[in-house]
Amino acid sequence: DDGGVEYGSCVDSDPSYCELTLPDGTEEYYVTTYKHSISDRQKWVRFFERASFGASTSMVETELASSDSFKVAAAKWIKKQRDDYPPTSHREYFRKRVNPRS
């Protein structure tokens, strides 16, 4: 446990620049960096896995055909889900089918 001590910080104006302060001691440290990027298809699959019950090929293809940026298109998808579909309740669905009380 580091006791809530912050060992590093990044510069807001340049997120690629960070400083790291190591605690005193006899330990040895090494720092590695790498760049990682994912394709637009991977972004959409990841988004739908988190925002729905999973991604279908047609859902991903529809969004890939959009001329909007990923952030704009994702915001539009969320707004459409919120505005066009009534809320559902898993608990209500489950109770109606498993333990009807009527």
Question: How would you describe what is shown here?
Answer:
The chain is an alpha+beta fold and 102 residues long. It is 43% helix and 11% strand. The protein is built from four helices and two strands, in the order E-E-H-H-H-H. It has helices spanning 40-51, 57-64, 70-84, 90-98; strands at residues 8-11, 14-20. Strands 1-2 form a two-stranded antiparallel sheet. The protein is elongated. 4% of the residues are buried. The model has no long low-confidence stretch (mean pLDDT 82).
Q: Please bin the fraction of helical residues.
A: 40-55%
Order of helices and strands: EEHHHH
Mean pLDDT: 82
Characterize the biggest β-sheet.
2 strands, antiparallel
| Low-pLDDT segments, ≥5 res | none
Structural class: alpha+beta
Give the overall form: elongated
Strand order of the biggest β-sheet: 1-2
Beta-strand proportion: 5-15%
The tally of beta strands, per DSSP, is 2
Give the helix tally.
4
Distance between the termini: 54 Å
Radius of gyration: 23 Å
Question: How is the secondary structure organized here?
Answer:
Layout: E1 8-11, E2 14-20, H1 40-51, H2 57-64, H3 70-84, H4 90-98
Antiparallel strand pairs: 1-2
Helix pairs in contact: 1-2
Structural features:
about 100 residues; alpha+beta; elongated
